[in-house]
Amino acid sequence: MREGRRSRACAPPRTPPGPGVRVGGQPAGNADFVDAVYGSFPLMIALIAVSTFVLLARAFRSLLLPAKAILLNVLSIAAAWGVLVLVWQHGYGSEAIWGIQATGSIPSWMPLMVFAFLFGLSMDYEVFILSRMREEYDRTGSTETAVVQGIGRTGRLVTSAALILFLSFTSMASGPETDVKMMATGLAAGILLDATVIRALIVPAAIALMGRWNWWLPSWPARLLRVEPSPPRREALGKSVG
After folding, report:
1. Model confidence pTM above 0.90
2. Cβ distance 129 to 150 under 8 Å?
3. CB atoms inside a 10 Å sphere around CB 126
4. What is the pLDDT of residues 154-195, one digit of tens each?
5. How many CA atoms lie within 13 A of 228 on its CB side?
6. From CA 53, how far away is CA 30, in angstroms rounded?
């Protein structure tokens, strides 16, 4: 990519004047691809975050739960990117497992594809868990009961679904192409970390710490979202069901 940009910068003074003068080749093409995709990447992330926040706020009648869901999804995706860099770019595991030396870099399209897959899958798990917790809180008025019942009723389903996907991506990593192995590694690691660390540990711990403020939705955003407001109320005594 650097070679493509340098060639592009040097082209005008070294070529005869006239219309239609271009610099081509793979380096220049890669530079154009990166500029086209990642030039609008921050805007895309912002649009996805805002639309996801609005939809989740309307679904759960809360301001904190959508913000927490987006932050934890970003954490899960960042962890998958980190695994990609460690295993393939730096070679911590690629040679021991596949006999492939450190690649030194990650293909430019790889982070975008990993983000697209993991954000959707992670948000599915989050909505599944939080919807059950919201139902329990509306029924009992206790965040403790909502966390216990929500994780108890959905935890095994989420873990089973994540395990199936993890095994599918693990089998995908046995393909001959290095790029396919990279993508499978990132997706498998992201799914595993999301289901075990994020959904099973961080999500219930964060909701338990925030208490009744998880379910708070003031009247003015409720009117914008066209749902009933959800004022913070006194917590009922939570009773764990064995």
Report:
1. no
2. yes
3. 25
4. 988 899 999 999 999 999 988 888 999 999 999 999 999 999
5. 4
6. 34
